[in-house]
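Checklist before submission:
- one chain only
- standard amino acids only
- sequence pasted in full

Submission:
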Amino acid sequence: MRTRGWIIPAAALAAASMAAGSSAQPAAPRAPRGEAPPEPVVIELFTAQGCAGCPEANARVEALADEPGVIALTYAVDYWDYLGWEDTFARPEFAQRQRAYRRPLKLRAVGTPQVVIDGRRQVPGAQEAALKTAVEEEAARRVFPPEIEFRETGDRVGVGSGRAPAGGAEVVAVVYRPGPQTVEIASGDNRGRTVRHVNVVRSVRSLGAWTGRPALYALPAGLAPDEAVAVLVQARADRRILNAAVLPPR
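Returned file contents:
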């Protein structure tokens, strides 16, 4: 599958020229002449351990998670807990993030499993062909995004200059644990099953507004050794993701 993008490795993120409060443009890998800088495709899976149809979608997303130029994130929602199993990964803010996509994607309602690609479109998570096609189409998109660079100390991230979308944009930090995790379900619709997840999100928060001018943002403090941070530059109005990068576990 042809994918675009680069996920910035920690070792390559020298940002000595970006002192705190600096407005300098972050340096970035040079794109070939005539081409836009590549950016990764962000796959956001909204799932629940109490959802009978979710394990298949979890597997589809996991199959794409290691593709070059893909950032896959799994958000567990809590609105299926009433079926008898309290999701061990869910937080209310994850369902809130999912609901924020409803109006821009012109959906009557939200549910699980749901996959959102680059904040631009949704795909039924269990439909393998549709999911791969959506990722490939987004990989071919060129949007001339702002560059993203992490400071070598790992405590700040710089976002470069670019055209801000109508309504403005925000920089979002998504803290997650890379790799698979399994949970044995003792009750509810998936009783007796072992449900597998990949890149489970632990927290999500806005770091501040991006206005099109270069800026530095403080990353969440106190990360566990097994936690990575995906930084998304996201339009406030239509929710499309302009660019993204990952700071892996230290």
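Reviewer check: The longest helix spans residues 54-65.
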